[in-house]
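WARN  no MSA supplied for this record, continuing single-sequence
INFO  ligand: adenosine-5'-triphosphate
INFO  echoing inputs
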Amino acid sequence: MAEQKAKGKKQAARQKGKGLDVGTAFIVCAEQKGDVVSFRSQRDGFFDVEYGEFAREMLTRAGVNYIQKGDSLYVVGNEALEFANVFNREMRRPLRSGVLSPTEREALPMVELVIQRVIGEPSEPGEIAYFSVPDRPVDAELDTVYHEKIVQEMLSKLGYEPKPINEGLAVVFSELADENFTGIGLSLGSGLVNMCLSFMSVPVVSFSVTRAGDWIDHQVAMAMAETATRICAIKESTFDLTKTEGVSRIEKALSIYYDALIDYVLAHMKRELEASERTPRVQKPLTIILSGGSAMPKGFQPRFEERLRATSLPVPIGEVRLVAQPLYSVAKGALVAARADESKR
Ligand SMILES: Nc1ncnc2c1ncn2[C@@H]1O[C@H](COP(=O)(O)OP(=O)(O)OP(=O)(O)O)[C@@H](O)[C@H]1O
Ligand SMILES: [Mg+2]
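INFO  complex generated
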């Protein structure tokens, strides 16, 4: 018993293996000490300010992450958003629709710095780090290969052994251990919605669509003649899909576009699942896991379920479950994969 206790205490050391979620809005790292999983996250963005020796010293002293390039200082991560708010300008983002674009090479050092700050150093060279990669978008010409290779290179440079994991599958890994990793993982993010139907941890059908949180912000902003940033701030703070009285024009528009997004996702799920040769023949109803920041407004789960029940998917669906920490489940799933690999070594 005493030994167990001592062992328990010892376990407080970090266990090997890390999970990284490289997203359009946030970069998140998950790691484990004993039974406790902890997370670190940063905004995936940057903001440029004019170079000045005084400004540079200030930033250094305040512990702000920045990069100096030519006549500019680029503030990266969480503070980039603070700067953008103060200057009343948009924060710039290196990823669009879930991926780094080959035409935006300029932003690579910024992403690299955010990744480095979030993941930190490996406990020893070659520690396994699983990183999330988006699935093939079915509604846009977008390539994920470049993105995957670049992130892989960055992690290798930091001393990790990087391994990619499909974003939707990571959600399944995070939440469906008790169901033998069988079910449907949905990650409703900023640039993309990723879906993966997994059977015993093996992806059967998976895809992404390029409509998600950013799309909602953009559509509502256009309809209301507002900036996407302002709409996003309302959406993330006070927006409630269950509200029926005193609903503002913006809230009404957000609700309309939330319905449109859910229907769009469900229509693509139906189409992809029905695509003849891949229609999975499952007997037991599958659990659907809802995760990602766009699943966070109050009332999202019942709204999704209501529209799901009106859709005839070709597979039986059981429970629809919203995860406890929607912004963290992809990183947690990547950690589950990394821990499994490390324990086999
Ligand atoms: N409380 C909230 N209510 C509604 N939306 C939110 C909330 N918090 C964050 N979001 C939205 O969730 C999205 C970010 O979610 P998430 O971190 O899962 O995306 P990501 O992984 O960075 O992006 P992607 O997977 O698309 O590359 C943004 O669109 C953000 O506005
Ligand atoms: Mg994501």
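The first strand starts at residue 18 and ends at 22.
INFO  checksum written, moving to next record
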